[in-house]
Each structure stands twice: as C-alpha cells, then as structure tokens.
From TrEMBL:
Substrate binds at residues 81, 101, 135-137. GO terms for molecular function: hydrolase activity, acting on glycosyl bonds. The active site is at residues 21, 154. The keyword Signal does not apply. Keywords: Glycosidase, Hydrolase, Lyase, Manganese, Metal-binding. The lineage of its organism: Bacteria, Bacillati, Actinomycetota, Actinomycetes, Micrococcales. The gene is psuG. Its cofactor is Mn(2+). Homotrimer. Catalyzes the reversible cleavage of pseudouridine 5'-phosphate (PsiMP) to ribose 5-phosphate and uracil. Functions biologically in the cleavage direction, as part of a pseudouridine degradation pathway. It is an enzyme of class 4 (lyase). Belongs to the pseudouridine-5'-phosphate glycosidase family. This is Pseudouridine-5'-phosphate glycosidase. Binds 1 Mn(2+) ion per subunit.
C-alpha cells in the first residue's frame, strides 16, 4: 500500500481526511465527465479544509491519494472493478482497478482513515432471494471502521431488504437531518430510520464511541438531496423499471449489473440522472468533510 505524502502528513498531524472511491469514476460515470468529476470531488474536500484521499489499485499498488496521472488512468478505459476480494489478485499481478465502496473501505481502514464519501451504496438486488446478488459493500461496512456518507442505496436495489441486512450485520445507520432513508436520486423512501443526527459533532461523538469500544464496524450516514434537487420521481420510476427489465432481458449478472444499470439510466434519462448523481456526491462530500473536521477536532 502506498499512502500519498499529503495524506500521510494529514494523518500524522491528525488533520481531517476524506476518502473517495474510484469505481464511481471508472464504472459509475460516463467519460469524459468522470475525470472532470473526480477532480471536482477532490477540490470540494480541499475547499472544506480537508485532504482528499482517492483510493484505487494502480499497477499493482493500493494507492491512498492519487496524483493527476493516476486519477487520469482511473478515468480511462480498461480499469477493473475492484471489490475487497479482487485487491490481492490485482496487486499480485500488477493490475489496475477502481475500488468499490467495499474495496475502498477495506483500504481506508488499513490506512487509518475514518471518513469516506460516495454516491450511493451497493446493497441487495431485487430477486436476491434466488440470485443471492448482494453487494459486498454491506459486509465490508460491518467489518471495517469507516463511516460512509451516501445518499442511501441506489434505488435500483431492494432498499428494504438492504436495510434489513444492515441491521443483521450490525451496520449502524443514521439519517443526516432526516428520519427517512433516502433513495439515491430521490430524497426519501418509504423506510423510516431509527436514528437521525443534526450535526457533524454528533457523528464525531458516535465515531469516538465506536473507537473506544473497538466496535470494528463502520457507520452509514444517509444524506438526502434537498427535494428541489431530486430527480423527477415519475421519470425516475419509469426509467429505473425499464433499465432493470433490459438488464434482465440481456442476462447481465455479477459485478456488471450495477455499471450496466447506471449507464443505461443515464442514456434513458438523456443525462438527467447524471446531473442528480453528481449533485448528491457533491453534497455527500461536503457533509463528510464536516464530519472529518469534527472528528479531527474531538
Ligand atoms: N455510487 C454511485 N456510483 C457508483 C457506485 C456507487 O453513485 O458507481 C458503485 C460503488 O463503487 C459501489 C458499487 O460500491 O457501485 C456497487 O457495486 P456492486 O453492486 O456490484 O457491489
Ligand atoms: Mn452484485
């Protein structure tokens, strides 16, 4: 593992760091917007007074903090999608991979980074009771002490089943200024949360308690977009239903499912889903930077 000097310095000085994932860059956003977005995401962290640590596997090395060349590599073609189990294989063969939420959380934990921002978590897919398609993101969050700020789970998933799995695996979930679990492009879902938080200090206090208890688990901070920024619900429902039907028709399975759905949804919505996706990541990064700052000060 290689930790960039800027990230190492921040860690040693106890100043705030926000981890960022790379699958969203390689497989979640269309080129060339993805590279522009990757740079902007890092800048939002900096503007908030924290250090960004984008995580990826580059030429066989797990990197925490990417330089401009590495960021461009990750935004280019031919980059593997790397979940936790793929990391040692890619490292052993000198490969290059973009880490998912699961992969990012595993590396961030090793690097001692406590706060991470992404778009939406992976979770339980519809039909998982027969396909067993459940993202490794949930298991990774149960076994690595990294808090992730996200807009809930992607609404292409079975949101209720995902919340049940997080309960089973003892992944704590708090709503950021909401009592409802958000649904990625949409600001809310029909699912109530047990806990809501109002401030970064409150989240930092939870992280401290987890540290003291050596809890080992992460934390999901669910941050909805304000309603005026969400995707039009009627268009959302129609487009998501069509994309899911096409994925089934085309026999898409395994790790290809999520990138296929996200890509198809951007096409079917003429890019409207993409703008909302970018907005929610920006919002999550701002909240993550505030939490990292509160945690560093505590
Ligand atoms: N959130 C986004 N865009 C994405 C993803 C999340 O806004 O592309 C990615 C994350 O990297 C997440 C992955 O970990 O999708 C989930 O993939 P799977 O369902 O195959 O576990
Ligand atoms: Mn899957």
């Amino acid at each position: 593992m290689h930790i960039a000097p800027e990230v190492r310095a921040a860690r040693d000085a106890g100043t705030p760091i926000v981890a960022l994932e790379s699958t969203i860059i390689s497989h979640g956003l269309p080129r060339p917007r993805n590279l522009e977005a990757a740079r902007e995401f890092e800048q939002i962290v900096r503007d908030a007074g924290a250090v960004p640590a984008t995580i990826a596997i580059v030429d066989g090395v797990a990197r925490v903090g990417l330089d401009a060349d590495a960021l461009a590599r990750i935004a280019g073609e031919g980059v593997a999608k790397a979940s936790v189990r793929d990391i040692p294989i890619l490292c052993a063969r000198g490969g290059t991979g973009a880490t998912t939420v699961a992969g990012t959380v595993a590396i961030a934990a090793r690097a001692g980074i406590r706060v991470f921002a992404t778009g939406g978590l992976g979770g339980v897919h519809h039909g998982a009771s027969t396909s067993f398609d459940e993202s490794a993101d949930i298991a990774a969050l149960s076994s690595h002490p990294v808090a992730v700020v996200c807009a809930g789970v992607k609404s292409v998933l079975d949101v209720g089943a995902t919340l049940e799995r997080m309960e089973t695996l003892s992944v704590p979930v708090v709503g950021w200024r909401t009592g409802r679990f958000p649904m990625f492009w949409l600001s809310s879902s029909e699912h109530d949360l047990d806990w809501r938080v109002e401030s970064a200090d409150e989240v930092a206090a939870i992280l401290r308690e987890q540290d003291a208890a050596r809890a080992g688990a992460g934390l999901v901070v669910a941050n909805p977009l304000p309603e005026d920024l969400q995707w039009d619900p009627a268009e959302h429902d129609a487009v998501v239903a069509q994309a899911r039907a096409e994925a089934e028709r085309d026999g898409i399975h395994g790790k290809a499912v999520t990138p296929y759905l996200l890509g198809r949804i951007v096409e079917l919505s003429s890019g409207r889903s993409l703008e909302v996706n970018l907005d929610l990541v920006r919002s999550n990064i701002r909240v993550a930077a505030a939490i990292a700052t509160a945690y560093a000060a505590a």
